[in-house]
Amino acid sequence: MKKEDCFYLGKIVSKFSFKGELLIKLDTDEPELYTEMESVFIGYGKNLVPFFIERSSLHKSNLLRVKFEDVSTEEDAEDLLKADIYLPLTLLPPLEGNRFYFHEIIGFTMTDTNYGEVGVITGVNDSTAQALFEVEKNGVQILIPMNDEFIHQVDRPNQSITVTTPEGLIELYLPS
To answer: pTM score, two decimals?
Structure first.
């Protein structure tokens, strides 16, 4: 399994017991969806290694307490601390309406209700305080804030997103 075929689910943040149990900080709004998993992939070096789960339960809302098969000592658990946890993209629940996963909108065409066609979404920058659509038009990158108020329609069948941005925002990026 390759990382590009998976989504990031969380990070192992601490040991929980002397018997190899670990706590995973889940990166999700719905942690209860992940309490019945049979296995996960753990980022180990440059590889994703499958680990099978003996048991798991929610611990303090967004933490998942996990006991992996063949991890039975504090030393075994220590070796997995700070590792990232992944699941295959096929396990993501489908979203409807204007909700979307960042990876699914890459390649969608963005249209602004006032400006017209903005360009093609090439990525999402979520390393800033507010996530940004990265849109390319004629070799120029345009950054559009990912604001629910701006997004009018996500049209999956036609691979397009319609937005209304503040006047002059798109023009800031384009040569006059």
So the answer is: 0.69
